[in-house]
Amino acid sequence: SLLQEMLVVGLLSGGKDSCYNLVQCVAAGHEVVALANLRPSRDTQEEDSNMYQTVGWDCVELLARAMRLPLYVETITGEGREMGKDYLPTEGDEVEDLYRLLERVARETGVKGVAVGAILSDYQRVRVESVCLRLGLTPLAYLWQRDQAELLGEMVRVGMESVLVKVACLGLEERHLGKT
User: What is the 3-state secondary structure (H, E, C) of the chain?
Assistant: First the structure.
């Protein structure tokens, strides 16, 4: 790996991408020492957010326990206010919730890297990079711009099992929920 091995916190939504990116971090020689999650501010399954996947947030604690890693949690209190191509820190924006979370994790654990499972969203990438830059952390997005069909095939080949908990795209319907 071109990057020096480092202690890493994994941003974990519970989705296949954030989980598989953790596998890639370990394969690159990094040590995942903590997990971090942003959850909805109310008792709901999903927050309306351009930034965070919140469906399944209530299962993230089980994943952390299975991985024997501490889980840091922050509640999403902001909303998407700064919607531009570039992100400028904006009070009340949901990205500042991520800043608070990662600032606490870095202070308490000494992590230097942040594992993020973003693949195609420039919106997410720019915002995570902004937070990391402000905190002196290195974003680790091993899945960034990977071909999705190739990536899914790779996940299947290595034995990763995923279950559909939400459908939000063409071609998938409610009848597909719960399938692997």
Answer: CCCCCCEEEEECCCCHHHHHHHHHHHHCCCEEEEEEEEECCCCCCCCCCCCCCCCCHHHHHHHHHHHCCCEEEEECCCECCCCCCCCCCCCCECHHHHHHHHHHHHHHHCCCEEECCCCCCHHHHHHHHHHHHHHCCEEECCCCCCCHHHHHHHHHHCCCCCCCCCCCCCCCCHHHCCCC
Written as one letter, the residue type at 148 is: Q
Q: How confident is the model at residue 169 (pLDDT cuts 50, 70, 90)?
A: low
* 137 and 111 Cβ atoms separated by less than 8 Å: yes
